[in-house]
Amino acid sequence: MCQDGPRDAPALLLIHGSASSGRSWAPMVRLLSGSHHVIRIDLLGHGRSAKPADGSYAIPDQARRAAAVLDRLGIERAVVVAHSSGGTVATALAEQRSELVTALALVNTGPSLAAYLAPDSAATGILQWPPTDEQLRELASTGFSRPGYQVPEELLDDVRSMTHHTFLATMQATRSYLEQRPLPDRLAVLGKPLLVIFGADDRRWRSSSAGEYRAVAGAEVELLPGLGHSPLLEDPPRTAVPLLAFTAKHAVPVER
Predict the structure, then answer these.
(1) What is the average pLDDT score of the chain?
(2) Does this entry carry the keyword Hydrolase (predicted)?
(3) Using an 8 Å Cβ cutoff, are 13 and 39 in contact?
(4) What would the DSSP string read from start to end of the chain?
(5) In terms of CB atoms within 10 Å, which end of the chain has fewer, N or C?
(6) Is residue 174 predicted with pLDDT exceeding 80?
(7) How far is the C-alpha of 183 from the C-alpha of 178, rounded, in Å?
(8) Structure confidence at residue 152 (pLDDT)
């Protein structure tokens, strides 16, 4: 867990996607921490967190751990921002602890499995572990808008640091959560302010599916032309603009 920005500023919890870590948000932190208390976590099985073979990687359990971090820090209200499959954890957190989540911002989080584009074969076909550099770069390539994008080495290290079990178990947990109920259906009943940011050239999730989130009353949907699945890495300033406008409206000041 990492903290940046003034501790008495409105809290912003950042949740990473599959096979990643809180480091994926590093390019955004400078842009967000001037006006927010920014908290980044590594979900179980990722980054610097434990990777137990017998642990539960189910999305509701990941959400409970995220809530425990905020509780431990004494944070009572937070805007939760999530990238990709981290959006399932953010949604589960809002389902479990409605009083804790003031608003949600999802970045390139597919609303349902029907919106998924990338083949599973590249990920599930890896039998050796850790993967070779070539396999890693093939896996990571669809995370960006254009072939040949130079993937940051530290993000490849995040995949290498996982076990084969946690890699597969965390992906299956996301799939299971989405199979049970699409995210717009879950979010529509929560009544939370929602911002959806989507790189329009996403190669993993159909970007037009971002419109499905309009089923949530008042949802704001922002498409970013020329960016892919990871706008927080490809163009942090452009990604920060709608996010900061949203948090300015919905972040709750800390009571003194």
Answers:
(1) 93
(2) yes
(3) yes
(4) -EEES-TTSPEEEEE--TT--GGGGHHHHHHHTTTSEEEE---TTSTTS---TTS---HHHHHHHHHHHHHHHT---EEEEEETTHHHHHHHHHHH-TTTEEEEEEES--SSGGGB-S-SHHHHT--SSSPPHHHHHHHHHTTSSSTT----HHHHHHHHTS-HHHHHHHHHHHHHHHHHS-HHHHHHTTT--EEEEEETT-SSB-GGGGGGGGGSTT-EEEEETT--S-HHHH-HHHHHHHHHHHHHHHPPPPP-
(5) C
(6) yes
(7) 7
(8) 84
pLDDT at 253 (0 to 100): 81
* Weakest mean pLDDT among 110-124, 175-189, 196-210, 211-225: 110-124
The predicted pLDDT at position 149 comes to 76
User: Which of 16-20, 130-134, 175-179, 219-223 comes out lowest in average pLDDT?
Assistant: 130-134
Interatomic CA distance for residues 145 and 127, integer angstroms: 27
Contact 252, 13 (CB under 8 A): no
Give the pLDDT confidence score for residue 125 in this predicted structure: 58
CA angle at 232 for the pair 228 and 238, rounded to the nearest 5°: 85
Q: Looking at residue 135, what is its pLDDT?
A: 84
d(CA 135, CA 175) in angstroms, rounded, equals 22
Taking the C-alpha atoms of residue 114 and residue 146, their distance in angstroms, rounded to an integer, is 23
10-42 pLDDT, tens per residue?
999 999 999 999 999 999 999 999 999 999 999
Write the CB contacts of 156 (distance below 8 Å, at least 6 apart in sequence).
133, 136, 137, 140
Beta strand 37-40 with 11-15: parallel, antiparallel or unpaired?
Answer: parallel
